[in-house]
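Ticket reopened. Same input as before:
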Amino acid sequence: MKIKSERDFWSGMMFLVVGVVFAIGAMNYSMGPACPPNDPCATSAWARLAQLSAHPGAGYFPLGLSILVALLGAIVLFKSLTIESENGDPIGGFAWKPLIIIVVAIAVFGLILEPLGLIVTVPVLIFISSLAGDEFHWKGALLNAVILTIGSWAIFIWGLKLTIPVWPVFIR
Amino acid sequence: MDLLHNLGIGFGVAFTLQNLLYAFFGCMLGTLIGVLPGIGPVATIAMLLPSTYALDATPALIMLAGIYYGAQYGGSTTAILINVPGESSSVVTAIDGYQMARQGRAGAALAAAGLGSFFAGCVGTIIIAAFAPPLTELAFKFGPAEYFSLMVLGLIGAVVLASGSLLKAIAMIILGLLLAQINTDVISGTARYSFDIPQLTDGIGFVVIAMGVFGFGEIISNLGRPAEHREVFTKDVKGLWPNKRDFMEAWPSVLRGTALGSILGVLPGGGALLASFASYTVEKKLTRNPRVPFGKGAIQGVAGPESANNAGAQTSFIPMLTLGIPPNAVMALMVGAMTIKGIQPGPQVMTSNPQLFWGLIASMWVGNAMLVILNLPLIGMWIKLLTVPYRFLFPAITLFCCIGVYSLNNSTFDVYLTALFALIGYVFFKLSVEPAPLLLGFILGPMMEENLRRALLLSRGDWTTFVTRPLSSGLLVAAALLIVIVSLPAISRKREVAFAAED
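Engineering reply: fixed in the latest deploy. New output:
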């Protein structure tokens, strides 16, 4: 089988996998009331569904949704293997540099904000994220960092009175 | 008469100094982000949501609303002057507007856009004021089954009128609904999908998803593309007032655009974008022998869509304000803002918080007036901003997003989650799946589940209740019809053509 549309193939795969994972997870939760002894709900699937629906449990909606999305994913997957699209609808290259740098920048922000405060975190964030662009100039990034550090202090701490730590732990 | 009395309350609230200032700030900020390509109202409102903690509900909503329609004005300015639509709804304006600018008629184009938008905004405000009370009456007749079906209609409508593969969009909605299931079940108290992480028992914050997927996902994909070359027509912006001939040609388009936009804005999934496309098509069909052909600088091609997109932006508030159901991603965030302030969006807002309700509506008119008065003279300033290189802008945007997410709950876990969603958002972009339906589904998820379970409880497990109750079945039939109509080959081709223009 040839993949006719790369994007659709992987999207379909994503939906399918997420659906299956959530469905398995939903099994851990109650779908509804337990079946009383000698009741028809024990034998027929429809009767069981009706009995569950009368008093849906925590797992009811998630299971339904997971099955739905897995189904849709399977259909998209199937279509991607059978229906022609122009030039195979490629995903194209991943922009690894900006992707990794930005994700790392955000994570670093989360890591150092509380121990080191806004004063250190803002310049660090600006420097790291500036690396993600096409051109990187030290002076420009430095200027940007200074302006934004002062600016964010003014807007968020002084203006909006948010409780964000400003100074590193050893100075407070 | 009731309408005047209500508008009176509204204007009384809107004209306080504080609310005027917030409206002004919102409009300015909205125009700014409308002018800057690469950041839109969704990401901005998501960024500002945490700061609304410090504000009261009314000024907060006034400011956020100002951002939304301010962005429409800003987007048209860049569409006309440099052929770069700052907002998706300005794509159509760029077609004829930029041609007019190249012929030295930028002033007339900008004025047509600005005045047309103002007229549409006024009409939109009156429509909201007039139709909100009867719609709210209707909403009180809704039981859980009706609410569930309405939300289904709203979600289906939102994707049907949007671009891209219908199947994938519906799957995204369900994915959003599923992500909202990571929380503690209200009825039984079970913590679901929390993997023993305590921060997850309350669920993922929607601001985290909004910023991660929209804000950062956008930045990463922008950085992945090479920078482009642009021609800027700032020096030739003189003659800001249209001459008599332009005026006579444009005003029918303004009227038609306003009518079209007002209707389309109320529909789920509608709003500004669809309205502007529809208006362009209508204007092309209805204007016989235009003095300047469409595509070469016809003023009707600017006035019509601009009025439509502004009218659509205003009336898209109606389903949110009256029924509590957001028709698009921006309104979904507004619902979020109201929830943060402890206001339950829905029909009862009108009676329990009349100052908020009518004040918001009145300030929309005020905002539109501000935008016209301030924007036309300030255009030069906005254009200067476009010359700020992206390499200074995007770290700033990254910073504001990070601070915004952190300040919601003073939680670094949220920041890490946002990093994860930034990655996911970029993957979505690469797979060409639309993130907006996911956000909509995510916001509506808890409401849908609650109503579904209540409806089933009331009917003792009978699923046919959704089709035997007349209102509910009507809504579901409408949703099914929408899917069928859009899947028909004839319509789906038109849809692709309309959205090919967007790329």
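Chain A has a mean pLDDT of 84. Chain A has two domains: 6-88, 96-159. Please confirm and we'll close it.
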